Amino acid sequence: MFSKLSLRTKLSVLVGVLIALAVGLCLSLFLVNAASRVRSESDSAFKLAHDFVQSAIIGIQDSKDPGEALQRVVEEANSSRHIRIYSEKFTSTDRELREVTPPPAWFSRLLAATSQRDEIEIAIFGQRFDKITIETSSLDEISEIWQEIKWISLASLIIIFIISIMIVWVVSKTLSPINDYVAALNRLDSGERNINISNNRTPEFQIISDRINTLAKTLHALDDENHILIQKMIKVQDDERKDLARDLHDEYGPALFMARVGIGEVRKKVDKISQSSSFHEEWAIVDGTLDKLQQINRRILGRLRPAALEEVGLSGAVEAMVQSWREAHPNIALSCALSQNHFVLDEHRALTAYRIIQEALTNIYRHAHATQASVQIKEDKVEYKSCLKIIIADNGKGINLDISQGVGLRGMKERILSVEGELKIINNGSGTRIEAIIPLS
């Protein structure tokens, strides 16, 4: 529980606890000294009272009115603190009239000294006249100590409260840069690099500020370098795809076509020589194989360099790609909704949109374990600017946004950045939703 508290709270609590322990220790020492004081004063008062009574007995015995003299002695003796004196015939009412606020019983037991009691017989002319009893009573002293404790405790609580507020304020003021550091690190983690933490007068915090500012600049430079490298990588990849597609189209495709035509001519000549049915079956197998190779070649050409982008535009190329995926993976229900509006995209933006849809569908078929997927393209407005909005969604297991992203997703983001667009990847709990916004101009 304590480990989960913030540093500010921990310091405030620790200092508050230390102050409370210090006050508690002072009160404990005060109580120890108070108990010693009560015992000392009680013993001293008992001795004085005993000596007083012993000396007063002589006056009582010589008095013409021993009873009046005894009563006067009892009343005078009871005026002393910590002592109660009475006789069988006389009891002073002086103590009973005092207004003494009794302390709690537990406090009295804590400080009360061992009670002392003594009885002195008074004889006049050899006959027993009365008996004086002397008892110690520390109620007055304990009551005074209790009142002192209450005021000291109240003053201590007020002081602790004031000091705690001051400590919290000082700690908050001192550690306030930490909040700026946490916010700056969170911004760095989210991808923001334009960070500059202001200088701090505390040397230790100044070092941290300088390090974070340096880290932000370094990451900014690295991001720029990564963007440049990835853009170059994408361009090289597109150029290689274009060259490979050209080779397949210009060389491999015609070679397959000529092979199929040549085998057809050979078949006609063989048919004139022999009417064996086995030749017909073998010709059919070879012809079917060449036909499949031509289909594979066209499919590879479509993935490498969609010629349909130039011939029928983005909508037609996407429809052809979706149909190809449907044929290759009939276990996933793939729907496609394309805008009927006529929007114009340059070659770079059209290719960016096509590649994003292609990469998203590739991820769905490879990793999502989905049974349904959809592609939607529509014209929209963002901040009063016309744009193309692409939405690809599936009902699969959802993408894990916490792990580092692969080359495919990073390539999608870089392609979007190259056209000043925006890309959102959302795990909605029942699949993944990718939203791409490409400005039309």
> Which strands sit side by side, in order, in the main sheet?
4-5-6-8-7
What is the N-to-C succession of helices and strands? HHEHEEHHHHHEHEEHEE
By secondary-structure content and strand pairing, the structural class works out as: alpha+beta
From the alpha carbons, calculate the radius of gyration and give it in angstroms: 51 Å
Indicate the low-confidence ranges by residue numbers.
Answer: 93-98
Largest sheet: 5 strands, mixed
Describe this structure in words.
- By secondary structure, the chain is α+β, with helices and mostly antiparallel strands.
- It folds into three domains: 2-170, no CATH class; 191-305; 313-441, Histidine kinase-like ATPase, C-terminal domain (Heat Shock Protein 90).
- The chain has helices at 7-62, 66-77, 105-111, 139-189, 203-273, 277-304, 308-311, 313-328, 347-368, 407-418, and strands at 83-87, 117-124, 127-136, 333-338, 372-382, 385-394, 422-427, 432-439.
- The strands form two sheets. The chain has a five-stranded mixed sheet, covered by helices on one side.
- α1 packs antiparallel against α2 (66-77) and α5 (203-273) crosses α10 (407-418).
- The longest helix has 71 residues, at 203-273.
- It is rod-shaped.
- Mean pLDDT is 78; it is low at 93-98.
